[in-house]
Design brief:
Elements (H helix, E strand, L loop, with lengths): L1 H13 L11 E2 L3 E3 L7 E3 L5 E9 L2 E8 L7 E4 L11 E4 L5 E4 L5 E5 L7 E4 L5 E4 L5 E4 L7 E2 L4 E2 L4 E7 L3 E11 L5 E4 L9 E2 L7 E5 L6 E5 L5 E3 L12 E7 L5 E7 L12 E5 L16 E3 L8 E3 L4 E3 L9 E3 L15 E7 L1 E3 L9 E3 L3 H10 L5 E5 L4 E5 L6 E3 L6 E8 L9 H18 L3 H16 L8 H6 L6 E2 L2 H7 L6 E5 L2 E10 L2 E10 L2 H16 L10 E7 L2 E7 L6 H6 L7 H21 L14 E3 L5 E3 L39 H16 L20 H10 L11 H5 L1 H14 L10 H9 L8 H4 L1
Parallel strand pairs: 25-34, 36-40
Antiparallel strand pairs: 1-10, 2-7, 3-4, 4-5, 5-6, 7-8, 8-9, 10-11, 11-12, 13-22, 14-19, 15-16, 16-17, 17-18, 19-20, 20-21, 22-23, 23-24, 25-26, 27-28, 29-35, 30-34, 31-33, 32-33, 32-35, 37-38, 38-39, 39-41, 40-41, 42-43
Helix pairs in contact: 3-4, 9-10, 9-14, 10-13, 11-13
Length: 791
């Protein structure tokens, strides 16, 4: 009886209200509620860290882990960084052994939903939140899914990434930069949404490399699991004794990976007031690619100084509260053809400024020139808006739009930027003051003519729009960016005809036209291009052509094929892309040559997923591809995967729920809703990606299962059915029994296979979003058993 009473009291203690909950072990059935009293957390034994609801504002919370004993309450990990929840949300370690987040709107998301049952959880004093099963073994831990920070004792494994937040301590959602440990052991920093190469890296350190934050000496090392070698990243300049300080390493919102320390409070002794810098990867902040987004250029006062962003003249900050979001032009770019008059434009000169890695893909280099000839080259070319003159090399590089990677100071001291800007009101977009002047003048004219107030207002608006020769909404940055005047290179039809040998070198044919390979001459030799010749222009082609130009002009990601220019001459509609010499993923996977190894197949799958995530959720206008398949994924010279043909997809604005399209897609990759006249959403791409993901990890076509030495029923002839059956029967290892590399990494293979099955659910609402697909593929969240299997 005494034992029973003790057990009842113990359970009551563990299930107390959040305000009274000082337990260090959380049992199944325990719930943590988001409230406004700042008591929504489970602390570690010494109170150094806490897991729970991190308060962003009065009614917005992240589920996260933070340093709890310091005034700043610095966040070290978060689960829902892109989707804060409200008051009344709760986290529960369910009796079914899962860790569940239920937001105040009733939506449920599993933080952990694995096959093993969690019977308890605890927040450890090293900052790691763990779930344990009945024998005390750890079955899930936050250390395995870092966000933007590493803590002592934590590692960044192969193919894992840290992703910066969007804006310091204001916006913790995913930002623009990542720290990635590649499969070849190269640790690198890049602006992952852009095509540009890494701006910092350690160099290849061998397969199976990983970054480890040593908890003994507080130094970071790149290790190789196959050899005893290690590469020390950080200098031994830390305060002593080390245990008197908190330590963390964070990728910040301006793309720098930095290590910090913070003095702990000790009895009556007060700790530090802020974090101190111990080490950083980037000493000159303006070398970070994409730091000032489009058109802006980075300035700093020297090493270790905080960067800032500026706009060229006639450009305006997109967000005055956050200069790092870039700039937009206050004018419509110059057009070629009948509207190409030079008198309304001039070229502004900015000394000591470079726009790095934004060349016309080396299509327009003027070597052995001087600054005046470079300025004149910009002025005389209606398709060119900017160039940079490299003083020591005496080279003029024309730039593609939008301008990226602007920098001044040390990285660009011997560079001169030339930017074409409007000089007259006929070309400039109307400013608020000018709009007021025009409106007043038109009202007076209207009074004289009609004397009617209502007609006057109508006439003033009509006259204003006519004078501007463009929609009134062009004053808005979003309209500026989405207009056709995106300043891609305008090619003449004769140029492309000559470059492609009279359109004789055919690469392939798609739904919208035929693609030809070609070459263009530059000072450095021949440049390879791929030219898509659109057909049936009078029916649908012209509309699709204009749509693609508007969208691709502001679409930049390293896993998307880049559009270089276009031809819009008479009835000719052509698009010019960078040439992918390695061909399509289909040929790479299923061709006669050597098949890619397992780790490279994983990299390809992750790259395609990142590209789709950008199209669905990160670019200004959501893009549904509608025909994801291996033939529409191309491989570049560095064997990176790039999605092609996305510019010919239907567009879905953020506030729409349905798009009406003609049936698209390819048999085998088409989602069921195409054939059911059901709403077409981004989930059609999720389905196609799921099929392709299974093809990639198995290295077999979705309908060529006759090569596999297993007995299958007719319904298992497709890869989706076959993989699903193997998972359901617990025989998934049969799929990779002849693939030693994949078999040695079976846990990852199983996870990716489960993700693929989730994606091909017949019910579109059950399929995960691309954000969740990425989280499952990276191992950030547990995959769980798909309903197609469990049902």
């Amino acid at each position: 009886m005494a034992f029973l009473l003790w057990l009842i009291l113990l359970v009551a203690y563990f299930h107390g209200s959040p305000a009274q909950n000082t337990t260090r072990t959380i049992l199944s059935g325990t719930r943590l509620m988001a409230n406004s009293q700042n008591t929504s957390s489970w602390p570690s034994p010494l109170g150094d860290f806490a897991f729970g609801f991190y308060n962003l504002s009065e009614d917005r919370f992240l589920v996260g882990i933070w340093f709890d004993k310091i005034p700043e309450k610095t966040l070290a990990w978060s689960f829902n960084r892109n989707q804060p929840v409200g008051l009344g949300s709760y986290v529960e370690l369910t009796v079914a052994g899962r860790l569940l987040l239920n937001d105040s709107q009733g939506s449920e998301t599993y933080i952990y939903n694995g096959s093993l049952y969690a019977t308890s959880a605890n927040m450890k004093d090293d900052g790691n939140f763990v779930l344990r099963n009945s024998d005390g073994s750890i079955i899930w831990q936050s250390f395995d899914s870092p966000t933007d920070t590493l803590l002592p004792g934590q590692s960044l494994a192969t193919n894992q990434t840290l992703i910066s937040n969007a804006n310091g301590t204001i916006d913790f959602s995913k930002g623009r930069f990542n720290l990635e440990m590649q499969f070849d052991g190269n640790l690198l920093l890049n602006a992952y949404r852009y095509k540009d190469p890494a701006y910092w890296n350690t160099g290849s350190f061998g397969d199976n490399g990983y970054l480890h934050f040593n908890a003994t000496n507080m130094l970071m090392f790149v290790y190789n699991t196959t050899t005893p070698n290690q590469n020390n990243l950080t200098a031994d300049k830390l305060p002593t004794p080390l245990n008197d300080y908190y330590h963390r390493a964070t990728l910040n919102d301006v793309g720098n990976f930095q290590q910090f320390y913070y003095k702990k409070a000790n009895g009556t002794q007060v700790g530090q007031s802020s974090w101190s810098l111990a080490w950083q990867a980037i000493k000159e902040p303006c070398i970070v690619n994409g730091i000032c987004e489009e058109y802006g250029y980075c300035t700093s006062l020297g090493d270790n100084q905080k960067p800032s962003c500026r706009c060229p003249q006639n450009f305006t900050l997109l967000d005055p509260n956050n200069p790092f979001k870039g700039c937009y032009p206050d004018f419509a770019p110059q057009r070629c053809g009948k509207d190409s008059s030079m008198r309304n434009f001039t070229v502004q000169v900015i000394e000591g400024v470079d726009y790095y890695n934004s060349n016309f893909a080396d299509l327009a280099e003027l070597k052995h020139s001087d600054r005046e000839s470079c300025r004149k080259a910009v002025m005389d070319d209606c398709s060119c808006m900017a160039a940079v003159f490299q003083v020591p090399e005496r080279t003029c590089l024309k730039k593609r739009m939008p301008l990226l990677n602007g920098r001044s100071g040390t990285p660009a001291v011997d560079r001169i930027a030339f930017i074409k800007v409007a000089t007259t009101s006929d070309t400039a977009l109307p400013s608020p003051d000018r709009k007021k002047d025009l409106r007043s003048r038109d009202l007076v004219a209207g009074l004289i003519i009609t004397g009617s107030v209502l007609i006057l207002i109508f006439a003033a608006g009509a006259i204003y729009c006519h004078l501007a020769s463009r929609p009134c909404g062009l004053i808005k940055p979003s309209s500026i960016s989405s207009g056709i005047e995106i300043n891609l290179r305008a090619f003449k039809f004769s140029e492309l005809q000559e470059a492609t040998g009279g359109f004789s070198r055919r690469l392939g044919r798609g739904a919208f036209g035929t693609v030809y390979s070609g070459t263009l001459l530059s000072e450095d030799g021949q440049i390879g291009i791929a030219v898509k010749k659109l057909e049936k222009v009078m029916e649908h082609g012209e509309k699709e052509f204009l749509t693609e130009l508007r969208v691709i002009g502001r679409t930049h990601h390293k896993n998307l094929v880049r559009l270089l220019g276009y031809c819009n001459e008479d009835s000719h509609r052509l698009l010019v892309y960078e040439l992918m010499k390695k061909g399509s993923l289909s040929s790479y996977l299923f061709g006669d040559g050597e098949k890619p190894n397992w780790r490279h197949r994983v990299e390809i799958a992750m790259g395609i997923a990142r590209g789709l995530l950008y199209l669905h959720e990160e670019c200004e206008t959501q893009i549904i591809h509608c025909d994801i398949k291996p033939q529409n994924v191309l491989i570049d010279d560095h064997y990176n995967a790039k999605i092609a043909d996305f510019g010919l997809a239907k567009l879905l604005m953020k506030d729409q729920t349905r798009t009406s399209t003609n049936a698209r897609g390819t048999v085998g990759y088409m989602a069921p809703e195409w054939l059911k006249n059901a709403p077409i959403t981004a989930k059609v791409d999720i389905y196609s990606f799921g099929v392709m993901l299974l093809e990639i990890i198995c290295c077999r076509r979705h309908i060529e299962l006759d090569q596999i030495v297993v007995e299958v029923e007719d319904e298992n002839l497709y890869i989706t059915d076959w993989i699903g059956s193997c998972i359901k029967d617990g025989e998934l290892r049969k799929v990779v029994e002849e693939d030693e590399e994949a078999l040695s990494d079976f846990t990852r293979f199983e996870r990716l296979a489960m993700v693929g099955i989730w994606c091909v659910s017949p019910n579109a609402t059950v399929r995960p979003s691309m954000t969740k697909v990425m989280q499952m593929m990276e191992g950030t969240i547990e995959v769980g058993v798909p309903p197609l299997i469990s049902g």
